[in-house]
Amino acid sequence: MTTLLTKEELPPPLSGYSDRHLRRMAEAGEIPRPRRLGREHVWVDDEIQEMIRRLPRVERTEGRSGSFTSETARAAVNKRWAKRREAA
């Protein structure tokens, strides 16, 4: 049996997007297209779960949740903060 999800039942962060933004994401191929069920738009749960499984994983180091593992990402952030300090 296929499970259908309404907008409110979508997993976060998709449930927080407006209907218009979800429609644009579906048109761009970023998320599966919703189906029409009467006047309601619904998504097939299996398609959403497959999309989530295919998302790239962000590796985090131990400690703070916002810490970076990539030296390139860390260098880019440090560079931006240095520019802000110089400007101040």
Structural account:
With 88 residues, the protein is α+β, with helices and mostly antiparallel strands. The chain has 2 domains: 4-54; 58-88. It contains 3 helices and 3 strands. The protein has helices spanning 19-27, 45-54, 71-87; strands at 4-5, 35-37, 40-44. A 3-stranded antiparallel sheet has the order 1-3-2. A hairpin with a 2-residue loop joins strand 2 and strand 3 (40-44). The longest helix is centred in the last third of the chain and has 17 residues, at 71-87. The protein is elongated, with a radius of gyration of 19 Å. The mean pLDDT is 81.
**Average pLDDT taken over every residue:** 81
Structural class: alpha+beta
Strand content: 5-15%
Number of helices: 3
Sheet of most strands: 3 strands, antiparallel
Number of strands: 3
**Residues in helix, %:** 40-55%
Tally of domains: 2
| H and E order | EHEEHH
Please state the CA-atom Rg, rounded to the nearest Å.
19 Å
Shape: elongated
Q: Strands of the biggest beta sheet: in what spatial order? A: 1-3-2
Q: Which spans of ≥5 residues are poorly predicted at pLDDT below 50?
A: none
Distance between the termini: 60 Å
In short:
This protein has 88 residues and is an alpha+beta fold. The protein folds into two domains: 4-54; 58-88.
Secondary structure elements and pairings:
Elements: E1 4-5, H1 19-27, E2 35-37, E3 40-44, H2 45-54, H3 71-87
Antiparallel strand pairs: 1-3, 2-3
